[in-house]
Amino acid sequence: MTSAKKSIPHLEKTANSKQFIVNGKPFLILGAELQNSSMTSAAYMSTVWQKLANTNINTVLGCVTWEDIEPIEGQFDFSELEQVILGAREHGLHLVLLWFGSFKNGVSTYAPAWVKKDVKRFPRAHFRKAGGLLETADVLSIFHEEALKADTKAFSALMRHVREFDEAHSTVIMVQVENEIGLLGDSRDGSSTANKRFSESVPTPLVQHLSTKWDTLHADLKENLQQFKRLGKSSGSWEVVFGKSQQTDELFMAYHYAIYVEKVAAAGKHEYALPFYTNVWQNYIDGDIAFPVTVAGGGGPGEYPSGGAVSNVLDIWQAFASSLDFIAPDIYFNDYTTSCAKYRHLNQPLFIPEQRRDEYGARRIWKAFGSYQAIGTSPFGIDTLEPATNPFTRHYGLLGSVKYIVLEAHRNPGSSIGFFFDELLPDGRDPSAPTIAQFGDFEVTIERCFVFGKPDAGAGMLIHLGDAKFLLIGWGFQAVFKSVSPKSTFTGILKFEEKIVDKKGNLSKGRILNGDETRSGAFCMMPNEEPDYGGFPICVTIPARTMIAEVEVYSLEEDSDDL
């Protein structure tokens, strides 16, 4: 990599992932996404910049729409965007630009009027209805060249202008290419041009990739390729090679969407090689909480955008949209931990560009950063919340204070783990199981923090500092250590110290916590700010203060004569 490329934001390879580098240093995105159209108005943004900064956010995700920058074909207007960039820069915030070009949430509502109205030049996709009828969709067809050429031209102009206007400042650090791509309403485009392409031979590079990379394919994709393996066809139409099913439709759309986005992204990257990604409206197959399938996005292609980079087709996107640096999952309804694991596929970095903005969602970011080396997270719709009541103010505040420590842990795979504990269910049952992990010579069990009254929710992460030392970050949990040596007869806490962190991430000693704070040596307690004493007259559980503590444990091995 040339020195010129190193000067702009980029991804740097680590032992099992990549780390985001901004201004020459590792960077943790404490992000938040605006409501859909907020960033189309610099005047509106002037009312929210300070609020965003006060929420401990360091990166704002917001749209740049095709209709806004090219209202008349060939005439580009970046004046509004320039004012937005200046506003972010003035408040010390970075930007991730979301390119709402041909596609936004499975439709084309942000394309310019001159594109929407010219169906001859820019044909639409068509839904297949009962009786062989076709319905015109509110989305551009990917099987015609004009939309692709126009989108590519506009995106190239955008990236060229961002480079000219901002390269010296790196206010803009990353770009999302399109948004929640796919066909919403049918498993594939039923137009005559799409049908013709569907009946043609499957592109040889796709068949070769699926065959030669079989052992490394995502398990969810392999599940959808059972007919491909059984049929053993290396050439023929899509249904000859993959069988007749909605999954074949999805494979067809995924390949062609990936090719479309690759051409747009490659052209943009030629102008300004910032990190690029696209985001995913996931298929609802492993729900975190109970929602009707139709509300959560559906369980079949077309109920969620068919052809988008869900885990069923993730390898196809990774292979054929290679100008994207990673694929990013939006996590609202799916199990958070499962989604994190799925989108670390082939060691790609994890970034969550959209997620829940409530306390329930905020707790889960610790799992992303602690267990899956996430480069960033981003709750959606942040500009309508106030810092004082926004849960991310608290979570990002703590996480931001230890960001350098977390980033260092990310360079050492297996040195950290994240966790969260949700509120008890109405019937008193605990929905959150303990987290158990092994670091070096010790097994640690992380569980909800003990109180005499009602246990509260909690979240945080544990970082192994080496040997028998560990850093605990967060609240509402406790850690119990046990030596894994079969000769060990006792594992104890040698030292438990509260830590204070300065602005540079340096830790200094606070209080020594070897008394009630360990339940007399039983475990290390990281309480909430207001523990429930349940009427017990002695306040043995101290309220959380810095929410950072270092513990050193030890193990004894006694001879039989000592027992």
TrEMBL record:
<keyword id="KW-0378">Hydrolase</keyword>
<dbReference type="Pfam" id="PF18120">
    <property type="entry name" value="DUF5597"/>
</dbReference>
<feature type="domain" description="Glycoside hydrolase family 42 N-terminal">
    <location>
        <begin position="50"/>
        <end position="200"/>
    </location>
</feature>
<dbReference type="GO" id="GO:0005975">
    <property type="term" value="P:carbohydrate metabolic process"/>
</dbReference>
<dbReference type="GO" id="GO:0009341">
    <property type="term" value="C:beta-galactosidase complex"/>
</dbReference>
<dbReference type="InterPro" id="IPR017853">
    <property type="entry name" value="GH"/>
</dbReference>
<keyword id="KW-0326">Glycosidase</keyword>
<feature type="domain" description="DUF5597">
    <location>
        <begin position="392"/>
        <end position="523"/>
    </location>
</feature>
<dbReference type="InterPro" id="IPR013529">
    <property type="entry name" value="Glyco_hydro_42_N"/>
</dbReference>
<dbReference type="InterPro" id="IPR040719">
    <property type="entry name" value="DUF5597"/>
</dbReference>
<dbReference type="Pfam" id="PF02449">
    <property type="entry name" value="Glyco_hydro_42"/>
</dbReference>
<dbReference type="GO" id="GO:0004565">
    <property type="term" value="F:beta-galactosidase activity"/>
</dbReference>
<protein>
    <submittedName>
        <fullName>Glycoside hydrolase family 35 protein</fullName>
    </submittedName>
</protein>
